Amino acid sequence: MSSVAVAAANERRLTIARAMAEAIAQEMRIDHRVFVMGEDIGTLGGVFGNTRGLFDEFGAERVRDTPISETAFMGAATGAASDGMRPIVELMFVDFFGVCFDAIYNSMAKNAYFSGGTVKVPVVLMTSTGGGYSDGGQHSQCLYGTFAHLPGMKVVAPSNAYDAKGLMTAAIRDDNPVVYMYHKGLQGMGWLGTEPAATVHVPEESYTIPFGQAAIVREGRDVTIVSVAMGVHNALKAADLLAADGVSAEVVDLRTLVPLDRETVFASVSKTGRLIVVDEDYHSYGMTGEIIASIAERDLSVLKASPQRVAYPDIPIPFSRPMEQFALPSPEKIIEAYGKMKGRRGWRWM
Amino acid sequence: MYETMLVSRFFEEAIEAIYLEGKKPVFNMAKGPIPGEMHLSNGQEPCAVGVCAHLTASDVVTSTHRPHHAAIAKGVDLRKMAAEIFGKKTGLSGGRGGHMHIFDPDVNFSCSGIIAQGMGPAVGAALSRKMQGREGVAVSYIGEGAANQGAFHETLNLAALWKLPVIFVVEDNAWGISVAKSASTAIPNNALRAAAYGMPGHHVTGNDPIAIFAAAGEAIALARGGGGPSLIDIETDRLAGHFMGDAEAYRPKGELETLRSRDPIPAFANRLQSEDGLSEQDLGAIAERARSRVDDAIRFARESAYPEPEEALDKVFV
User: Fold this and answer.
1) Looking at this predicted complex, what is its ipTM?
2) Closest Cα to residue B287, out of B279, B299, B297, B275?
């Protein structure tokens, strides 16, 4: 069942934050090796709510507030994981990766390979992404491509609470490092502003969503719009607007960037002949280029028009509201991109 | 301990000789049976044996880019380690890691090519033992240069805060590649820094395995008893260059001769004779055993096959 169909059922609706916390709690109940550490994840329940309730249920031993020492606790997560534990570690904002990236990409991500597979590093690194609320250029980035580019990490980016829970459970049970990137604008935190469509029905029982399986969240015939996280919601809104003009858009939610479900994207583009990739991460050298290349490499002839991308300009994220909103992807920009494929200029072509 | 020091030294001497094969008259790091960077541990053996003599296979050790002596003292499989250094299929990781990435989970040993990178994992392993109620301590070897990294200060604080069974061992060989410790470090010895994190700091001079053994014994007993972390700062000597091919022009004239004159291995042998009554014959027999272990490991590595190139694509994920 697609997540959109689940949302329509309109029962037991959870935010992504609640869904993440529920998945973690359920795994902690059945596996004593699972524990959480990071900044403000204890009594506060996580700045973005994704560990709420865990401290009360499991206590300070398994839900550990850390000092502001990302290098130390990211390294510690690797060491604990290699010694038989299954740590979930939080990097409060993905933007903070700069102070601890060595521990992540050079150690956590590579130790399995360096050991010929004899050492496992089952860490879930959860981290918040995304802007749109004027938090400036060090608290608003996505950096999906940065993590997905480097080998040894699986990368997850849910767009809704149903997927968020299933992907978290799968991440905790995975024997490899998983970078779980949750978008702040989808968390259901009222004080941040939030996308209501991310809050959907979530079954109480535990379930997993396998990595590397994209979801077709809306079927269509004329154009394929591919994205993750917040971009999926922009794509769905664009699809509604396009439908009003008789254009049938298919929306693909990748759900995981590593592994990447190139098959589903190719099958969709083979059907529609047109491709738009939407990414709140930077334009160049990122997800948009990767998706387009995967089609171009395989069979250019499926394309009826040059693929388009709607991504963040290659600029640090500006603070000022009009400047930031100008730079973000939006449904209007997606429609404009479709217009370009049809040889029209501007999004008000309809 | 003496025998392990000899195994380590003979191993490094064998590696040194083989490393130079194919690299003369023109030195090219990419050539020969052992390509790449090579950081030898000659002179630093006391740091390895003095600490690891207290450890069992289940204790955890993380080491540095100069790892062979610590690996040998921890009991890493010598054949598989040699094969790994040669890039052979029979190596610890089938040739994917190389000399700076020695992983042997059977004895809980790992190392890394990045300065201070092993400190966090050692703290994490210690946390794991504490949380699981499993016996064991973690030892993190670093050089004196690593004590100026942020990771050093973050991990010491975290280990002390959580009272974890971890021992930080600084192998102070006085040189960070070409920069002397006096030009990089604001205090005379790194044991003083332990006070900043409320943990015992031992400063051991003389590159003396017995003195190191004594300090490590205290620190490890404290950790095993739930008393938390310690730092051991050891003044040691790097008898080789930073890496093979290092011209060492930065060393003051005569320094290397001085260091060689106080080589810890003959010094330890003399002590074993004068204080413990070992005969020349006894020492010869120990050397013989050490030599044959090294010869066997090197032969195994030489005779092993290279991996299939396509195996490079495996084991990114487990």
Assistant:
1) 0.94
2) B279
Decide if A343 is inside a domain: yes
Q: Do B93 and A83 touch (CB under 8 A)?
A: no
Write down the residue that tokens 């003195």 correspond to.
B211
Peptide linkage before B188 cis (omega within 30 of 0): no
Query: In chain B, which ranges are E strands?
Result: 60-63, 109-111, 138-143, 166-172, 175-176, 179-180, 201-204, 230-235
Are B315 and A116 within 8 A, CB to CB?
yes
C-alpha span between B63 and A231 (Å, rounded): 44
Domain ranges of chain B: 2-305
Find the CATH number of the domain harbouring A146.
Answer: 3.40.50.970
Flag whether pLDDT at A7 surpasses 80.
no
- pLDDT over threshold 50, residue A350: no
A178 and A116 within one domain: yes
Note whether residue A209 is domain-resident: no
At which of A134, A169, A201 does a domain end? A201
Tokens 């000597």 label which residue?
B237
Domain B2-305 top-level CATH class = alpha beta
The pLDDT score that the predictor gives to residue A298 is 98
This prediction's pTM: 0.94
Calculate how close chain B gets to A305, using CA atoms only, in Å. 35
Query: Do A232 and A323 sit in the same domain of this protein?
Result: yes
Positions of chain B with pLDDT lower than 50, given as ranges: none
Q: What is the mean pLDDT of residues A127-147?
A: 96
pLDDT at A1: 44
- Which residue in B272, B254, B247, B212 sits closest to B53, CA to CA? B212
Boundaries of domain holding A268: 215-349
Q: Does A120 sit within 8 Å of B318, measured CB to CB?
A: yes
Q: For B143-189, write each residue's pLDDT tens digit.
A: 999 999 999 999 999 999 999 999 999 999 999 999 999 999 999 99
Counted domains in chain A: 2
